[in-house]
Amino acid sequence: MKKLNMETLIHPLPPIYDSNSKILILGSFPSRKSRENNFYYGHRQNQFWSLLENVYEEKITDKINFLHKHHIALFDVVKKCDIIGSKDSTITNVTVNDINYLVKNSQIKKIYVTGKKALELYQKYVEKDTKIKAIYLPSPSPLNRTLSYQEKLLEYLKIRED
């Protein structure tokens, strides 16, 4: 197996949002597969899109249209960092994205974060600017085996309440 080294990376994806966005979902930083596929939660085993399909009881055929239809904005906390592969636990030397810009240019009132690292970084660097307390969602990563799919879904159903 190939040993991965620390890399300095810049977030390659633009935020997905519009002026009608009411909910913002933030990850930490795109995984290697998401970077390769040039889209959020791009690993085929990542459960994010499946969870949203179940939350809204709707098959997703066009991800961007789906997000706009449900007034969901999607982005990541980290703009630039040092990271090994896709491991959130290795993220250091962080520069954050301008999340406050999204909030000011939309109707975002609720912010959800997917995973502990996203929550930690949001609370440390971003919350003081947005003044919106983030709501924790478990990581949809296939590596997160602490919760079953059904347990994750129960947490993600919070989104639909908003």
Which features characterize this protein?
Uracil-DNA Glycosylase, subunit E, 6 helices, alpha/beta, 35% helix, 7 strands, single chain, 162 residues
Describe the secondary structure blueprint for this structure:
Layout: E1 6-10, E2 23-27, H1 32-37, H2 48-56, H3 63-69, E3 72-76, E4 78-84, E5 92-96, H4 99-104, E6 110-114, H5 116-130, E7 134-137, H6 149-161
Parallel strand pairs: 2-3, 2-6, 6-7
Antiparallel strand pairs: 1-4, 4-5
Helix pairs in contact: 2-6
How does this model look, in words?
- The protein is α/β, with parallel strands linked by helices and 162 residues long.
- The protein has one domain: Uracil-DNA glycosylase-like domain (Uracil-DNA Glycosylase, subunit E).
- The protein has six helices and seven strands, in the order E-E-H-H-H-E-E-E-H-E-H-E-H.
- It has helices at residues 32-37, 48-56, 63-69, 99-104, 116-130, 149-161; strands at 6-10, 23-27, 72-76, 78-84, 92-96, 110-114, 134-137.
- Strands 3-2-6-7 form a four-stranded parallel β-sheet, with helices on both faces. It has a three-stranded antiparallel β-sheet with strand order 1-4-5, covered by helices on one side.
- Helix 2 crosses helix 6.
- The termini are far apart.
- The model has no long low-confidence stretch (mean pLDDT 95).
